[in-house]
Amino acid sequence: MKQRKLFIAGNWKMNKTATEAVQMVSALVKKVEGLSDKINMAVCPPFTALDRISSILKGSGIALGAQNLSDKASGAYTGEVSAAMLLELGVKYVIIGHSERRQYYGETDEIVSKKAKFALNAGLLPIVCVGETLQEREGNKTSNVITTQLKGSLSGITSDEMLKTTIAYEPVWAIGTGKTASPDQAQEVHALIRKLLTDLFGKAVAEKIIIQYGGSVKADNAKELMAKEDIDGALVGGASLDAEGFSALIKNAI
Ligand code: PGA
After folding, report:
1. Residue 1 has pLDDT above 70, yes or no
2. Which residue would you say has higher pLDDT here, 174 or 178?
3. Is 190 tagged catalytic?
4. In this structure, which residue's CA is closest to atom 9 in ligand 1?
5. What local confidence, expressed as pLDDT, does residue 180 receive?
6. Structure pTM?
């Protein structure tokens, strides 16, 4: 039995209009009723759906998350969304440094750490993502890449802040490809992350941190992944988009 309570979050990416989001979440709430004692759950829809689904999630045990936030408080930053704007809508978590943000929008470890710090200062709980590409894995660079990303992305974070932070290990080659890291492959990196967290923040803190796995997690592979010692949940993309599949995944994970 794990000491850490599992945490499963759905990252919808750029999918679902607000109307579609309302339909999905209304169905999901019914399907996972009563499970929040056993598992922490969140959905991270696009910004445009946050407001409408916030009220549906109230009291459901499913938390609301966003997929990104600005590293500025307010002002002349066209297209950006601030922490205060998210908080007002009932957002609790925010995904930071997803590989798609790093790859397509130039987010560096430095930007990720700034955003994480900003989120924490504002009272949001960051889910900080790290992961290697296929080329890096094949070149035996996985541990170096993860070490650099993790240290850089958490730079300036205090131990107290770390306790409010979730890490998501998402190998880029497993995202949306149907290729999941094997439970052993994932566990190896999760153990490395926990060791790095121990070096940075001490054992007592590191033992409490939720490290999610992400990359083609589905209802039928969730259980074997969650069985691994250092895998404490999942960040789920494609399989979090429909209520039936996502609720089945959550139930299989417990
Ligand atoms: P996937 O995405 O589950 O569709 O592979 C995971 C993620 O990018 O968070």
Report:
1. no
2. 174
3. no
4. 237
5. 82
6. 0.97
Using 50, 70 and 90 to split pLDDT, how confident is the model at 179? confident
Q: How far, in Å, is the centroid of ligand 1 from the Cα of 174?
A: 8
Distance CA 237, CA 227 (A): 20
CB of 222 closer than 6 A to ligand 1?
no
Could you tell me the domains of the chain? 7-253 (3.20.20.70)
Asked if residue 214 has its Cβ within 6 Å of ligand 1, the reply is: yes
When pLDDT is cut at 50, 70 and 90, the band that residue 176 belongs to is confident
Q: Clarify whether 170 is annotated catalytic.
A: yes
**Would the CB of 179 count as within 6 Å of ligand 1?**
no
What tokens does 121 get?
Answer: 């200062």
Q: Which atom of ligand 1 is nearest to the CA of 100?
A: 8
| Mean pLDDT value across residues 47-60 | 97
Q: For position 24, what pLDDT does the model report?
A: 98
- And the tokens for 175? 């995202």
- Rounded to the nearest angstrom, the distance between the alpha carbon of 74 and the centre of ligand 1 is 30
